[in-house]
């Protein structure tokens, strides 16, 4: 179980009553992707595979590499040329092979899926890409984060702020909270807030444009490498439009790179938490969410911190 820390100084700074941060950086490879990697390696072993393949901006690759090493499996990580050097060093430290693929994530999702699926077949490897349209098992690992938050708080929070790329992390929270609500464990489903960088926001664009599906957004740009996505899943869009068990409408919002970097500074100097840009993105969105009246200042808020500062 990862820590749920009461962010007292940050709470006061933002003018909030209750602010908690769920610190996912204390896991094996330093990010929330370890949750999914545990499931992926279990599935690979049960299927008799001796190698796993994933595509990653860094964190998923490091998580797969670390857990594959513990299980005695080979690992290959497909990366974009712009992947952060620190994350590449980490992947190599676990003994995984790295394959650099130009334009890996800057292409439509269908083309991307076809490409990585072909590579996995050619290697006779288990495809452990962290996105439900490709792998339906891995997302189960992320649901545990929501279950832990409820257990640690003793109730559901009012608001959960989630840095969002492809959308699995957001969807996993929704499914877990709905399940707990239906079982009578909680009184309601929290308001979920999906946060994407301004330069990489296909999901937010779909919400704002009232689109029936998430469209491909080429050439994403942001300091948050883990959120530098050209596409998000339609399953995430469906979650944001689902009011099951909720007391407040789910939200999708963008955050500027400047606000992400400000959040990194505040988390470090106020709470002693060093986060990479992707990990701090949720906290970076807090000021605008509060100023715009989209979340109440007296709400019980949990921001998920997804990746350690030494990664990027």
TrEMBL record:
Keywords: Lyase, Pyridoxal phosphate. Residues 2-307 form the Tryptophan synthase beta chain-like PALP domain. It comes from Sulfobacillus harzensis. Its cofactor is pyridoxal 5'-phosphate. GO terms for biological process: isoleucine biosynthetic process; L-serine catabolic process; L-threonine catabolic process. It comes from the Bacteria. GO terms for molecular function: L-serine ammonia-lyase activity; pyridoxal phosphate binding; threonine deaminase activity. Coiled coil: none annotated. Gene3D superfamilies: 3.40.50.1100. This is Pyridoxal-phosphate dependent enzyme.
């Amino acid at each position: 179980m990862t820590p749920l820390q009461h962010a007292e100084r940050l709470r006061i700074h933002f003018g909030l009553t209750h602010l908690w941060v769920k610190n996912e950086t204390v896991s094996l490879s330093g990010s929330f992707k370890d949750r999914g990697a545990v499931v992926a390696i279990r599935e690979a072993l049960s299927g008799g595979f001796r190698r796993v393949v994933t595509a990653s901006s860094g964190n998923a690759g490091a998580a797969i590499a670390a857990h594959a090493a513990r299980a005695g499996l080979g690992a290959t990580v497909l990366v974009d040329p712009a992947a952060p050097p620190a994350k590449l060093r980490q992947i190599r430290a676990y003994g995984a092979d790295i394959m650099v693929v130009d334009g890996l994530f800057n292409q439509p999702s269908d083309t991307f899926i076809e490409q990585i699926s072909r590579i996995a077949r050619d290697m006779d490897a288990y495809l452990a890409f962290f996105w439900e349209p490709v792998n339906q098992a891995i997302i189960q690992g992320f649901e545990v984060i929501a279950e832990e938050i409820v257990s640690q708080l003793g109730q559901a929070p009012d608001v959960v702020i989630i840095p969002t790329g492809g959308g699995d992390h957001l969807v996993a929270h929704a499914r877990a909270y709905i399940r707990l609500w239906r079982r009578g464990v909680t009184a309601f489903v929290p308001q979920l807030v999906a946060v994407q960088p301004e330069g990489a926001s296909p999901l937010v664009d779909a919400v704002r444009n009232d689109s029936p599906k998430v469209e491909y957004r080429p050439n994403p740009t942001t300091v948050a490498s883990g959120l530098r996505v050209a596409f998000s899943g339609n399953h995430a869009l469906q979650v944001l439009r689902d009011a099951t068990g909720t007391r407040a409408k789910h939200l999708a919002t963008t955050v500027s790179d400047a606000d992400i970097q400000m959040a990194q500074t505040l988390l470090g100097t106020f709470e002693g938490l060093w986060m990479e840009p992707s990990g701090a993105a949720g906290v970076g969105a807090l000021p605008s969410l509060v100023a715009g009246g989209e979340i109440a200042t007296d709400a019980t808020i949990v921001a998920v911190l997804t990746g350690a500062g030494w990664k990027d």
